[in-house]
Amino acid sequence: MSSAAQSENNKKWLVLATIGLSVFMAMIDSSIVNLTLPTFAREMGVSFAAVQWIVLSYMLTVTTLMLSVGRLADIVGKRPMFVVGLAIFTVASGMCAIEVSLAWLIGWRVVQGVGASVVMALGPAILTEVFPPAERGKALGMIGTTVSAGIVLGPTLGGFILGSLGWGWIFLVNVPLGIIGCIVGARTLPAPVETRGQKFDIAGGVTMFGALLSLLLALTLGQRMGFGAPHILGLFAASVVLGAAFVKIENSVKQPLVQLPLFNNTIFSVNLVSSFLSFIATAGTLILMPFFLQQVLHYGAERTGLLLSVMPIVIGVVAPIAGTLSDKYGVRPITVAGLGVLLLGYLAVSGLTAQSTTLDYILRFLPVGLGLGLFQSPNNSAIMGSVPREHLGIASGLLAVSRTLGQTSGVAIIGALWSARVATHGGTAEGSAAPEAQVSGLHETALVLAGLVAVALLLTLRGTRPRREEIAATT
């Protein structure tokens, strides 16, 4: 290998490290802050409902901006967008650590979410540019490991920092890492490709922002207020109206925010829907298991936390292996195998009982983590490899939205379904229902999750083709 080729090879791994570090910070920030909400409420003298907006403001900002960020990156270039986004995230992290008021913290969490939306939306797009098709799955799989590490380490690291240093350091740890990421990213990320005459679709961006915000608020607030409440129904209606307006705008403007013809590509659209369904199932699982472990099996918080880490640990181990396999054998067989294993996993979870042991729980959840690990990185590779190079930013943004919207929908829909089934079996609220009622509700809900995965599996089998060159095509 020549020195120039060796230099380029080294550079792409530095790019992967920069993206991985940035995504890790964004992911760990979400899970760490959840742990500190009781501390915020106590030290600031506010209600728990109020401090929840520390989390919600970040999540809403990230999800509503990712599509616009992806399109802007296609226009102005991914390197300047990514570095500026990471810099915004870093500065906002430092400002969040300053104890002024709850409004101050929520405001800077919004700014932090702006930076995080850039990092989370552009990571896959940049890696797709830097890594050849034969290594794309492996690179995306490593990012999957980084995401899993952030989920697993967040509560543990957060507990240590909170107990030893105080809550401000939960945000301050991002600052030196963010500075390093900005410096390395500015030097190693690929230079932007010159684009002329490109304009940002302001009307499309505003309507999509409003549609996503209305939907996310309805799904989030509806869990507390009830999905039949007038305000919640109004938010759902606003989301539908704005969504329809967005489609009309995109069909009429010359340079739309989202190229709707992209969805005519069955590989792109089917794998995007499959991703959305898998994240609904994943989020539904994570919201239900703490209730089962603590209220049915009567495990403590520490033991519960360790068992909840089984799935992300398995995903983190399997994801880069699955990515490498997809590079070698094509994405379709690996994604199909992953969804098949995931389906078996949820069927196994539906067999949990009040007499289940720790080993029984682990054995039933291993295939869930294995299936998700096999599915996610090859599926992401298929999505990113099915679009032209000039649309990588918006494709990456759509992929990120499918993840966050699927997670939010999963928590709301699956949580409401489980509550309803528990109430049907126990005649009382889920928190005070008999263990038998909670187990019955879990059985039925797990079967619904298996049904969602079965739909994703059928879509993947019927809607994708085994020809590897079609999936990996990129220009």
Automatic annotation (TrEMBL):
<keyword id="KW-0813">Transport</keyword>
<feature type="transmembrane region" description="Helical">
    <location>
        <begin position="305"/>
        <end position="322"/>
    </location>
</feature>
<feature type="transmembrane region" description="Helical">
    <location>
        <begin position="440"/>
        <end position="461"/>
    </location>
</feature>
<feature type="transmembrane region" description="Helical">
    <location>
        <begin position="227"/>
        <end position="247"/>
    </location>
</feature>
<dbReference type="GO" id="GO:0022857">
    <property type="term" value="F:transmembrane transporter activity"/>
</dbReference>
<keyword id="KW-0812">Transmembrane</keyword>
<dbReference type="InterPro" id="IPR020846">
    <property type="entry name" value="MFS_dom"/>
</dbReference>
<feature type="transmembrane region" description="Helical">
    <location>
        <begin position="110"/>
        <end position="127"/>
    </location>
</feature>
<feature type="transmembrane region" description="Helical">
    <location>
        <begin position="45"/>
        <end position="69"/>
    </location>
</feature>
<feature type="transmembrane region" description="Helical">
    <location>
        <begin position="268"/>
        <end position="293"/>
    </location>
</feature>
<dbReference type="InterPro" id="IPR036259">
    <property type="entry name" value="MFS_trans_sf"/>
</dbReference>
<dbReference type="InterPro" id="IPR004638">
    <property type="entry name" value="EmrB-like"/>
</dbReference>
<dbReference type="GO" id="GO:0005886">
    <property type="term" value="C:plasma membrane"/>
</dbReference>
<feature type="transmembrane region" description="Helical">
    <location>
        <begin position="167"/>
        <end position="190"/>
    </location>
</feature>
<keyword id="KW-1133">Transmembrane helix</keyword>
<protein>
    <submittedName>
        <fullName>Multidrug MFS transporter</fullName>
    </submittedName>
</protein>
<feature type="transmembrane region" description="Helical">
    <location>
        <begin position="202"/>
        <end position="221"/>
    </location>
</feature>
<dbReference type="InterPro" id="IPR011701">
    <property type="entry name" value="MFS"/>
</dbReference>
<keyword id="KW-0472">Membrane</keyword>
<feature type="transmembrane region" description="Helical">
    <location>
        <begin position="81"/>
        <end position="104"/>
    </location>
</feature>
<keyword id="KW-1003">Cell membrane</keyword>
<feature type="transmembrane region" description="Helical">
    <location>
        <begin position="12"/>
        <end position="33"/>
    </location>
</feature>
<feature type="domain" description="Major facilitator superfamily (MFS) profile">
    <location>
        <begin position="15"/>
        <end position="468"/>
    </location>
</feature>
<dbReference type="Pfam" id="PF07690">
    <property type="entry name" value="MFS_1"/>
</dbReference>
<feature type="transmembrane region" description="Helical">
    <location>
        <begin position="139"/>
        <end position="161"/>
    </location>
</feature>
<feature type="transmembrane region" description="Helical">
    <location>
        <begin position="329"/>
        <end position="349"/>
    </location>
</feature>
